[in-house]
Amino acid sequence: MKRPRKTVFVCTLRRLSRAELPVDTEELARYLIGKVLVRETASRLSGRIVETEAYPIGDAAGRAFRGTTPHNRSLFLERGHAHVYFIYGSSYLLNISSEVPEVGAGVLLRAVEPLEGVELMVSSSRKTRLADLGRGPGRLTKAMAIDLRQDGLDLCARGPLWLAATAQRTGTIGKSVRIGISRNIGRLLRFYERGNPHVSGPKRLRQ
Question: Which CATH number is associated with domain 14-205?
Fold first, then answer.
């Protein structure tokens, strides 16, 4: 089996503070493009965020729409916390909480461009192309070794999962409808780095 070529990681990571994260959900979804998700295991895994979706206050397509439950409580935490949930009987998905405490809203991370730990990502995936490892929200969590044990973690604090910035320049950011939802389907709340091969979705939503 042909393995993806290992990415050379040269950027210095700087942990993001909560004060840097926009409170507004849509603004946060756009802001996160080009930032880095870091997973500390026995070795470090990291991926540059290249696609997000916003699920703002009152959005019928959002996980927080029906109020607080045992499964979505982390979406009601202060902005910058992880909300991990299991879906389709096979995949974990990762949201980042937004807005203010006790107000449920969040940003779904849909795709990352692998930076560190590529070989470990490959070993946990059946994908052989580098562009496929973190393309799509279920593949993202698999590549980054994320499951329910990371639900509720503060991504602005020291720990096994955190957010970072780098000096790498972010390309042009595109905007489109969200993917795979059946409510509020016309809202332009999906953000992505145009031309990045790690972005998911049909070609018309990646240009």
Answer: 3.10.300.10
User: Global pTM?
Assistant: 0.92
**85: helix, strand or coil:** strand
Q: Which of 200, 183, 189, 199 is nearest to 63 (CA)?
A: 183
Per-residue pLDDT band at 6 (split at 50, 70, 90) = very low
For 130, residues 6+ apart whose C-beta sits below 8 A from its C-beta are 4, 5, 7, 114, 118
Burial of 15 (0-12, 13-18, 19+ CB in 10 A): middle
The rounded Cα 146 to chain-centroid distance in angstroms is 11
Q: What is the pLDDT of residues 144-188, one digit of tens each?
A: 999 999 999 999 999 999 999 999 999 999 999 999 999 999 999
Name the CA radius of gyration of the chain, rounded: 16
Q: What would the mean pLDDT of 115-128 be, rounded to a whole number?
A: 87
In this structure, is the dihedral angle defined by the CA atoms of residues 133, 16, 97 and 155, taken in order, positive or negative?
positive
Report the share of the chain in percent with pLDDT over 70: 94
Whether the CB-CB separation of 194 and 207 falls below 8 Å is answered with yes
Residue boundaries of the structural domains of the chain: 14-205
Query: What's the whole-number mean pLDDT along residues 18-33?
Result: 98
Mean pLDDT to the nearest integer, 34-51 = 97
Give the list of residues 6+ apart from residue 172 with CB closer than 8 angstroms, or none.
Answer: 193, 194, 195
